[in-house]
Records
---
Amino acid sequence: MKAPISGHTLSLAMRTAYVTGAASGIGRATAHRLATDGFAVFATDIDEAGGIETVAQIEAAGGTASFVRCDVTNADACRALVAQILDAHGRLDVAVHNAGIEGPVLPLAALDPDAFRQVFEVNVMGVVHGMQAALGTMVEAGQGSIVNVASVAGLNGFPFHAPYATSKHAVVGLTRTAALEVARTGVRVNAVCPGFTDTPMVDDGLQKMGQTLEQLTRRIPARRLGHPDEVAAAIAYLASAAAAYVTGHALALDGGLDAG
Ligand code: NAI
């Protein structure tokens, strides 16, 4: 393993970011956006074909990216990801914990308790593993930004999505708690809380609910879905020096849903 780059050299080395769940949707858009902003991006996912496609798209647009297979439910894999980034670049600047699953769409009383465990394993423990892997090196460097992808369902109840909504409330709680723990070190921890965003997850959700897109958008004050690029722009802001005084925040990007 290379010695970590420090001092003057650190400031000249390329800034690095990893994004979990970068094979699709919001994660892919975020990987693109961070590459455009000049980061060497590590796009990670369990979907190898999708992740490799994300990297190919970034490289075709002139950015720097690599794919690393990482199942966020595996703490060792998350630690190995961070070690690989430090080995290659000597620094980790931004960690985006985006990988997530929707889980079953059922009334609470009808849910198998295992459904909670499965959703929590990815949506909660995946974020815990990422934060535990990233925080040490960031605190040591005295800088770094973590952005966790929660949901507007982390701020409000979401009928028939109890495991999902509960897991996303946990992500907001983890974000606020970690932010307070490291606030004085220069490391920031924030969350984004997207509303309904145009990705495969919403297509699946509509199918499970037996709803049309029109029925869904009627519930959204802005009367449209969000675009993954709009979430990526908020993540890029929270990751940037422009947000230097923003920590412990859960930012809703939801076309007005949370205001209702
Ligand atoms: P998506 O389904 O398009 O992408 C999710 C990605 O996570 C996939 O590439 C999948 O392979 C990956 N993934 C799943 N389990 C994984 C694991 N164990 N390890 C590593 N990667 C794994 O979904 P979308 O919509 O882009 O969602 C991204 C995040 O945004 C999720 O956390 C989701 O809960 C959240 N979100 C999405 C909203 C939406 O309306 N699309 C609304 C609010 C939050």
---
Amino acid sequence: MIASAHIDTFARDNLPPRELQPEFVFELPELQYPARLNACVELLDRAVENGFRNKPCIVTPTETLSYAELQERVNRIANVLVNDLGLVPGNRVLLRSANNAMMVASYFAVLKAGGIVVATMPLLRAKEISYAIQKAKIKFALCDARLEDEMEKAKPLSPDLKKLAYWGKGGLETLMAQEGYENFAACNTAADDVCLIAFTSGTTGQPKGTMHFHRDLLAVCDTYGKNVLRANANDRFIGSPPLAFTFGVGGLVFFPMRVGASTVLLEKSTPDDLLSAIERHRATVCFTAPTAYRAILGKLEGRDISSLRKCVSAGEALPKATWEAWQQATGIKILDGIGSTEMLHIFIGSPEESLCAGATGKPVPGYQAKIIDENGNALPPNTPGRLAVRGPTGCRYLADERQKKYVEDGWNITGDTYLCDKDGYFWYQARSDDMIISAGYNIAGPEVESVLLSHPAVAECGVVGAPCPERGQIVKAFVVLRGGFTGDAAMTKILQEFVKAEVAPYKYPRAVEYVTSLPKTDTGKLQRFRLREAASASANTKLAS
Ligand code: 3UK
């Protein structure tokens, strides 16, 4: 084994045992990494050396930083971490901020100093922040002063936390300004030293800390970035996912920096904000969720987003109707891709010329995928089953029993039900625990959702199983209507008939409930388990009455 640079061995000590880790595959020539590498050196210092010194790296509504300016800021923060706060390699550092330049600079400073980044969603509350601090035994935090209130509330709940510096009100900046801090010698980390602990959004149970190595940050760029996205130094990236979400940091930071491109970071990124920023900054590559593409579609009148050339959608299934409407409106074929926090980024998704609308795509070069049954046997084409994947990245939970559930026989089991057609395209069905079983039929909620979404009255919807004494479950739709439509019995009838005409009639929603909004996670995903809870609660009251 290569000598770790970590003096604090916590992360390595808490890796899952070898036999519970997935098998890692490095078949592509671009994945032959040296034994020692530091992701900050490869992504940032290398870009400065390679001619991008004066090129804009980070663009925000308030500032623009060239690659060299970002590098200097990173060096200054790394010096503060090591010399003023006392960080040693292997220590974890909590980062709290919306998407902005200081967040990225802090991120890379931690990498460069050999620390481990634990970035958290800006919306987290004190209890959730302290959970991460406890779980990852975090001593240091760098935090945007605008998030001070909740951070201060987390302090008394977090005895492990020893040093905390705020930026935006002078504290961190004063330390950064010290003489000699403009240079910093990168920690000579091993390619397999942990550099990132990304917490899952925790739809069920406590969030899991997924551990990633320095080489993993490069591997996602050299697989998805290089072979599917294929952006270049002239691109300007933009998007909505938070940098604490690996979809965000990969798409908005690692991918652009790997090719010397620029990235536009937005602290607020509702569909309206995103649309205006695409126009204003002439962005070329956009990363966001399917619901945002859908929302933007309704607002394109009189806007100019002709600068865009590539659009990536992930996080949830992209309905075919959204894909088609986007292509109609913009001429762009959205690149759908499935990724996960465990795998770090996208592992199935095809480039424009070989994608198949409605399917997620084919495995990203460097990854392998298959569909298996309950016992782990491969299933024939067109048969729904459990998705299993492996590649250069994979699941390593920080001290968590649930490792046994995500990894089976060396394969990562994502928890999704998919099928693979005879041409090798992977088609999303549902999260495995979201499949609805009604009178013996297996029904995928997202399929019914995508039909409902193609009806002009429907703005958003979520489809789940509601308990039913006769059928086990019935299909129930929670629907947010567009302005000007009324959620009454007549509308329900219209929507039911619409679904029956589009897909096998047994899939139609026997119950429709109209709501003003749907429950979402911080990462923008529909929380179907909450809809299921609501559906059970109302079914129970009906049974009782
Ligand atoms: C679902 C999708 C259908 C799927 C993520 C890109 O979403 C990300 O990570 P999470 O850990 O969730 C993983 C789960 O989300 N999912 C994601 N993408 C798709 N379902 N079609 C898709 N295109 O259930 C998966 O198991 O929050 C996505 C990159 C990095 C990420 N972390």
